[in-house]
Amino acid sequence: MAITGSRLMLALSTMLFVGAVASRLPAHGPVTPQAVDTSKLPDIGEAILTKNPYRGNPVAIKIGESAYGQNCARCHGLDAVSGGIAPDLRYMDKGEAGDEWYMERYHKGAVRDGKVYMPPMGPILGQKAGWAIRSWLDTKHQE
Ligand code: HEC
């Protein structure tokens, strides 16, 4: 009986411990944004634009592809193909129609009731990187 009891306690405390650790981790693992080198892109100032200034720019598309892979793919999926954790960004409105909403999310992330569904990326990576990613995403667009 004593053995059964302590085994039960051990099992219970193990469960509690695992539960506590799991609930403290963000749903998709720790978020460590990777700096993006945008020095080759024209400067666009600090004010947040509502239209992509780099659309179709091949340098931006290339920078955007790797920036996406380092900062967005773990939630939005490799090569922009979502595995279901976060929306599939290929289906966002392409071009000007989707630019403003894209930037809004990129800058503010998605936080509801204190839960971070998506961290704000703009303040960390900067607007230039955001538009570079958007330029690449436009090349992946699906109807
Ligand atoms: C920690 C996971 C995570 C990371 C990292 C992440 N996102 Fe998100 N993103 C989400 C989730 C979850 C949503 C849906 C939010 C909601 O339900 O409101 C979302 C929504 C979006 C949307 C709105 C999509 C739509 O159809 O309305 C855009 C745009 C977006 N993310 C862009 C990005 C970009 C660009 C990056 C990388 C710089 C990024 N996200 C990184 C989880 C993430």
UniProtKB/TrEMBL annotation:
Gene Ontology MF term list: electron transfer activity; heme binding; metal ion binding
SUPFAM superfamilies membership: Cytochrome c
Name this protein carries in UniProt: Cytochrome c-550 PedF
Keyword Ligase: no
Keywords (A to Z) from UniProt: Heme, Iron, Metal-binding, Signal
Pfam families reported in the protein's UniProt record: Cytochrome_CBB3
Keyword presence, Signal: yes
Source superkingdom: Bacteria
Signal peptide: 1-22
